Automatic annotation (TrEMBL), chain A:
SUPFAM superfamilies: Bet v1-like. Residues 183-204 have a biased composition (Basic and acidic residues). This is Cyclase. It comes from Micromonospora solifontis. The keyword Protein transport does not apply. It comes from the Bacteria. Residues 180-212 are annotated as: Disordered. Keywords: Membrane, Transmembrane, Transmembrane helix.
From TrEMBL, chain B:
SUPFAM superfamilies: GroES-like (SSF50129), NAD(P)-binding Rossmann-fold domains (SSF51735). Gene3D superfamilies: Medium-chain alcohol dehydrogenases, catalytic domain, NAD(P)-binding Rossmann-like Domain. Residues 196-264 form the Alcohol dehydrogenase-like C-terminal domain. It comes from Micromonospora solifontis. Transmembrane segments: none annotated. PROSITE patterns: ADH_ZINC. It comes from the Bacteria. Keywords: Metal-binding, Oxidoreductase, Zinc. The keyword Metal-binding applies. This is Glutathione-dependent formaldehyde dehydrogenase.
């Protein structure tokens, strides 16, 4: 359990960091507001990965792959049997630090709570076998709320963590299925640096959010 | 390096651009030897397929030599002479596992546009706009190919560059079109469009068992080439009533399967065409569906309409009633390159299919803009212009 718990906690760390990192990228994209419950924004997002549940959990032990992917932004420290402390920094958001507590709730369930960071956030991830030999459904629930100051600055409200969650799930799927996350940002073109910057902004809009 | 770039609707120019580099562990870099134009490029150049950016490098049907491989690449080696499928596929998702490569879940890093437009994002395609991932294309001295082990295939010795290049796109597309028809032997198959794709579809239908293949176009040279090379029957739609002719050729039944290899810039004669063209120009409809309408009307009851011509958005006056009441099977899609290429290379090697005749206009990359002009206007019997980036 402990070793499985550890792997699994890494998955949580990956999600926390990805959500944190996505925040900066997704900023300023706002459409209709997500559902609210007791002052928390709540979203549910799922993605299907073409790997059995055990392989999805096992994936997180491959340190090298993890480092290449998501966990390079996070450190994990064990608190007790089922609880982990995660410190993640957000390179895009100027090194903002996130601290979160991750709890392994069961062999296929995990939850986390951000204890310090720009947005109050908690989440749950659950793994379910997908029907018809389709692998594993990763189902996530994310709740967040932002203080009045941050809301005023437009830094954390509306859809951002939702968009970030979708991107995170997509990245995790790609890592699990292919070991890589593709990016065409540096492909050659006939653009001058200014045009390239403008194109990168469009790329960002086309990379963030969408349906997972 | 030099590369052919899109510079706005209808405008192309060869520019100096940076060379590509390995960016992910599965990438390979290919030194491009032959890079063909394709009908899809025309939709992109003319602004009918969306999300092109000024400076984008075109080209997705190509072959060349591998000059660099990423750390995870195993099957492909530096020095290999390869042909590369236009569609990018990861090899690791459910769609790839079930050989539906053009539906790959992980190969379009910019999926939001198509998710909004179509509900889900299909695979990325090299040199095919930012809706298809924003990859740089092959009309350049070098190209980065992601998932090199999945997308690149070593080609048989002795097959010329300008022939094997079509195993990249035109051949697998034509093959898939015929494959969709579910032929059992003895069928009559009609093919709209005598371009590279239509001709390869016609040849594939013959190999898969069609007894008669009828190719429809308005360009006499293309029809003559198809008749001469493949031994198909032809109909010139500018001179003949196609529906009437197909009905007569099949003693009233209609073709068992109808393949549409024309796409969204379909041309026609008469007032309905003027209406479609006006609506498309004003962007009130994104696609001109004339040949599809005809294919549906012509197809026998219970037959199959197989669509490989590319469509991007909405069409008007789609004869759904005919399709429904005649119980037609509609199949369509971007081609699953990786599924068909190895088999097609075998068939080229033994001479069963010889696509080399499609390369009517080989030229150096520097003349790319001119090459497209000739291809678009179908001048001088042009079937496909093939650019050679390494030629002086
Ligand atoms: N599905 C795929 O994966 C895939 C791959 C490659 C190309 N394509 C598409 O296939 C289509 C054909 O490609 P191509 O390279 O052969 O193009 P092309 O431009 O060389 O050929 C198109 C042909 O269609 C003919 N045509 C126009 N209107 C017609 C009509 N109403 N009836 C009959 N013929 C008509 C034209 O005269 C021309 O000969 C394009 O839409 C292209 O985008 C699809
Ligand atoms: Zn093509
Ligand atoms: Zn895939």
């Amino acid at each position: 359990m402990t070793s499985n718990g550890a792997r699994w906690a890494l998955a949580g760390a990956a999600t926390v960091t990805a959500v944190g990192v996505g925040r900066a990228v997704a900023r300023r994209r706002r459409r209709h507001q997500p559902e609210r419950e007791d002052g928390w924004y709540v979203v549910h997002r799922g993605i299907t990965v073409d790997r059995p549940v055990d392989a999805v959990i096992g994936f997180w032990t491959d340190r090298e792959r993890l480092d290449r992917g998501l966990a390079e932004w996070a450190t994990l420290e064990q608190v007790d049997d089922n609880r982990w402390r995660c410190v993640a920094s957000d390179p895009v958001g100027g090194g903002t630090e996130w601290r979160a507590e991750i709890t392994v709730d069961g062999p296929r369930r995990l939850s986390w709570r951000v204890t310090a960071g720009p947005v109050a956030q908690r989440g749950r991830v659950e793994l379910l076998p997908a029907p018809q030999d389709r692998g594993t459904e990763i189902r996530a629930e994310l709740r967040w709320r932002s203080g009045p100051v941050r809301r005023m600055l437009g830094l954390a409200g509306g859809h951002e963590p939702d968009l970030a969650l979708r991107s995170a799930l997509r990245r995790i799927k790609s890592l699990l299925e292919t070991g890589q996350v593709l990016d065409t940002r540096h492909d050659p073109s006939g653009r001058d640096p200014k045009q390239e910057q403008a194109t990168d902004r469009i790329r960002e809009q086309l990379m963030v959010g969408g349906r997972p | 390096m030099r590369a052919l770039c899109w510079e706005g609707v209808g405008k192309l120019a060869v520019r100096d651009v940076p060379e590509p580099a390995i960016r992910a562990a599965g990438d390979i870099i290919v030194k491009v030897k032959a890079s063909s134009v394709c009908g899809s490029d025309l939709h992109l150049i003319n602004g009918y397929l969306p999300a092109m950016r000024e400076g984008d490098i075109l080209g997705h049907e190509f072959m060349g030599e591998v000059v660099e491989t990423g750390p995870d690449v195993r099957r492909i080696k530096v020095g290999d002479r390869v042909v590369v499928g236009s569609v990018v596929a990861c090899g690791g998702c459910w769609y790839c596992r079930t050989e539906q490569y053009s539906l790959c879940d992980n190969s379009n890093p910019q999926p939001v546009f198509t998710e909004k437009l179509w509900g889900h994002s299909p695979a990325g395609i090299l040199g095919y706009s930012h809706a298809a991932g924003g990859y740089s294309g092959s009309h350049a001295e070098y190209i980065r190919v992601p998932f090199g082990d999945v997308g690149a295939f070593t080609v048989p010795d002795g097959v010329p560059d300008d022939s094997v290049v079509f195993a990249s796109d035109a051949m697998p597309t034509g093959w898939m079109a015929a494959d969709f028809c579910g032929l059992k032997g003895g069928e009559v198959v009609a093919v709209w469009g005598a371009g590279g794709v239509g001709q390869m579809a016609a040849r594939s239908a013959q190999i898969l068992g069609a007894e008669r293949v009828i190719v429809i176009d308005r360009l006499p040279e293309r029809l003559a080439t198809a008749a001469g090379r493949l031994g198909v029957e032809t109909i010139n739609y500018a001179e003949t009533d196609v529906l009437e002719a197909l009905r007569e050729l099949t003693a009233g039944r209609g073709p068992d399967a109808c393949i549409e290899a024309v796409g969204m810039e379909s041309h026609d004669v008469g007032p309905i065409y003027a209406y479609d063209k006006a609506k498309q120009t004003a962007r009130l409809q994104s696609d001109r569906p004339t040949s599809i309408r005809q294919a549906i009307m012509a197809c026998r009851k219970g037959g199959t309409v197989s669509i490989v011509g590319v469509y991007g958005g909405l069409v008007d006056k789609f004869p759904l009633g005919a399709a429904m009441n005649k119980a037609l099977v509609l199949r369509m899609g971007q081609m699953h390159a990786q599924r068909y290429i190895p088999m097609l290379l075998d068939r080229i090697a033994v001479g069963e299919i010889d696509p080399g005749y499609l390369a009517t206009h080989p030229m150096p990359l520097e003349q790319g803009a001119k090459g497209y002009e000739i291809f678009e206007k179908k001048e001088d019997g042009c079937l496909r212009t093939v650019l050679h980036p390494q030629a002086a």
